[in-house]
Structure of GNAT family N-acetyltransferase:
Amino acid sequence: MIEPRLTLEPLCYADSMWLFELERDPEVMRYTDRGPQTLTNIVEQMPELVRGYDKEDALKLWLVCHPDLGRIGTAAFYVNPQGESEVGYKLHRQFWGQGLGKATLCALLEWVAKHRPNEPLVAEVFKENIASTKVLQRFGFVVVKEYWNHEHQLWDQHLERACLSKAPLSC
């Protein structure tokens, strides 16, 4: 099977309703550190999200676009509070189990390779999210710590990957 070439497109204010549709789904959001979002939550976050592309260490949240299916999810890069370069992604539930998580992470890591190639990467994944853990591991991420997440009352995983300049990408 030939995997689709996905693109990352910046969010704009007109994407508020689309982002709300993704992030109001409890199944999609159960694998994140936030619960389902309201339209008010999304509208309040949009100014920061839209400005993030212009600030080096700010959260960058892109729409993930498939050539035939259109928008399938989001991909994110940001410098977390510990100063680490962190990546993550979410897909609409209808696109789960189709290999699109791998294609999404590939597109995201290609952006990192161009813009932040000398920084090691991290990802945080709830242990029960086995599919995302496997996708990250396919790209060289290694689980370095498992810990009890008191806020969400479940096990969490911290994964790390060498910088892309030292361990090139293989999509």
Observations:
- The two ends are 14 Å apart (CA to CA).
- The longest strand covers residues 70-79.
- Residues 100-115 form the longest helix (16 residues).
